[in-house]
Records
---
Amino acid sequence: MSLSTLVLSLADNKLMLGLRYAEWATRAPSLEADIAAAAMGLDDLGHSRVLYGCLDPLGEDPRGPERETDAASHLSLPYFDRPWTSWAQFVAANSVLDTAFSVMIQACVEGDVEVLRTRLRKMLNEERYHFLHGRSWLRAGIDQEPLNEAWRQAIEWYGPPDGEVAGLNRRGALSMGPAALLSRLEERLEATAPRVAIDWTAWDTTRRRGRPGVLDERTFGMLRGLEEKRFYPAGA
Amino acid sequence: MSSRHFTRVHGSVREYEVFARKARIDPLRMIGSVVAPDDDLAAAYARATYDEERWIEMAIVPREAMTILWAPGEDVD
């Protein structure tokens, strides 16, 4: 896996995080939380756009034509495969996964790849408010199941101890390897990750996930603009 | 009168006044308020709700921390 593929994974996950946040813009438990969901969704959609824009300067854009036909070519985590059905899932993603992505962005900003150092820095400022939002709702208490799942997928996304992220860290492209990333995530959330047994031999090295599955059909259609086409005038 | 009651999710919330300014020469002015159970969530809500303009500074203050000298309709002694 190259640095470009890691950035594409970050971009795809940010895109899906933004879309799933936005789906809750009228379903959150309070009007303020509705607005926050919409604003954070907008932020993350914007971040994904910046990240996609980094692929070309990195010298290698891993996206091929299969992105239009094969949902499995999108590199998002299982957590985003289906729309969330509970506020607890929102909070777990907001606190754990969003922060996990921010910690990786920080590792890029502190690394030696110029395009990432300069273009990603502003994201960290915006992400501060996502973090405050997630941590506060987390402190209010949520179901353990989605929280454990979010932790598991964050650990899986950072990858195995001797994997490519560790290599990118040794090369200087990232300031942290998997163990340091997880440690920073725990430190930020003032929590200890649950002990999870991960079978790295079954782990998908490109999609950075431990189990198969793809985005639901409607979401995949929406990403490709097919949902909008349903509303076109006949013959357009 | 409607019998519906609006119940907030959090049991205990505070109202925060939101202040902002667009230029260094401007004074901070009150641009609105948010309701939240703690400072962190209030900051996140203020930024999400009032971020449509290019503020150079934004601050929140718990309403209870403000000492009101007089209010509309009250005599100024």
Note: Residues 39-50 of chain B form the longest helix (12 residues).
---
Amino acid sequence: MRDAFFETLERLMGVNEKIIFITADLGFKLFDRIAARHPDRVINVGIREATMIGIAAGLSKEGFLPFVYSFVPFVTLRCAEQIRVDLCYNNLSAVLVGVGSGLAYGPNGPTHMGIEDVGVMSALPNLTILSPCDAVEVRMLLPQAVRLKTPVYVRLGRSGEPLCHHQHTRRLKIGCPSVLKEGTDVAVFTYGSMTYEVLTAAHELEKEKGCSIRVVSWHTLKPLKEKVILPLVQDGIPVMVVEEQMSGGSLGSRLALFFEERAIHNPFCHLHLREEYPDVCGDRAYLLDLGQLSKTHIKRKIKKFLNHVRDGMNG
Amino acid sequence: MLTLAHQTKTPHIGPALSCVDILTVLYAGVMKTDCRRPLMADRDRFILSKGHGVLALYTCLAHMGFLNPDILFSYCKNGSPLAEHPLAHQFPCIEFATGSLGHGLAVGAGVAMASRLKKERYKVFVLMGDGECNEGSVWEAAGFASTWKLDNLIVIVDHNKLQATDRCEKLSGGYDLMQAWKSFGWETCEVDGHDVARMGKVYTRAFFNIKKPKVIIAHTVKGKGVSFMENDLEWHYRWPDVGDLKKALGELKGIRRRGRISSAIDSVKET
């Protein structure tokens, strides 16, 4: 995803001279190419995240479109109030780019994890939040993000993630969750790097148990629009939300509220990280396993959820 | 300002009085602005980083023709565009919403950076409080601005020596404010922030030509102009009651009669 981001950014900067790339001293060697092509339009502000957002707001107000780059926690929570006031309240367009969503930077420890950012950022008005699942979504969604008149937060994984979409998928639109796989027994909504685990789990369950599972890449976490949610659930299908994120303010908690407010009573299940910081070191796979969110756990929980739904109907 | 604070029972009259002379000099004599074209491309930009001093800014903007003076009387009333800290998207002449301290300098640095990219020559003025200089984000932005030699960025620190609950000296007396800015690579100077003529003389061509961001430490008095408000932290929070107002306006009338301010502004314009 990270490589797809820099390729796409380079292309966008070539055609849109208003784009300015700002980094707070991260991305070693990754922005060398764009800096060589556009030396005036790459600003390394140093390790100054709060200031980075303020500078972006100032540039945006003067007609530029800043891309602000750092690790997920440093481009969100570290400078949350600057995002709130300088960008969201003043409603200035800028693209915040965070790498290392979820547990991607696992061995670096919880300081570098992106496991509460969706919840916190979702609370901010005017902000659009994107969490693409693979390089295809990055390439398709980023050019659309540039045209939005709001601040946007894009969360990326690391690099080398497997693809979930076909290389040449065309129909991807900000605001419209993307159905990766049709199915009728259960609909699983997920986003970001978790999507690949869910998709693989769904394919395996289909082969092994004959379950029909709908998998949706929910790349636009905010805004959540009624008209795109309803068609995905109106057949009464059981809904499961899987996210590499704690539950407070996350997609699952916001969808649960959405369903409750509209008296949509599809069976509902939410898989998320526990509200605690891992107390041991581990890579993403290890920590997913620890948090019971590995592919094996997801398969087990989908089966359990389907059994539970079936028992409920029979009982 | 006093009448508005009295009518609406709002605080922050002290910090508004401490910066009103600074604003007067900027708007009347220094900044390139045009109330008929508030968004003209080459206007100088102003950011009130100490958003709680906004009563002084509203009054100043009304005097300069940017705001209809009648609207001042809606200050802090329900439905009004004039809040205790400047709101977003209400008037073109108020470019940024502020109120949370420590934001304005970074935003100003961005605006200054934009002028370089656009090859425009406007200046960016940021008015900050001395207490505000406690914020870590101020020093992040200060370090950025000097590193990038943003020489069209000018900060004025309203140094009234009182912050929200105590004297600056007590809360941040471990270092010298001016030296701090200097060590961050800024061109510094200090001036009496109520001496309109002196302040005007700071903004010379030579000063603007120095290839560094610049900070003017303006020594001021919280509550300036009203004897019983001066240097009293109480007036960060209190509003004048009928008696206070009458007494305060009486004192100010004396000053106005002497015509000091208007003649001083004329001298600023000449420089």
Note: The longest helix of chain A spans residues 295-314.
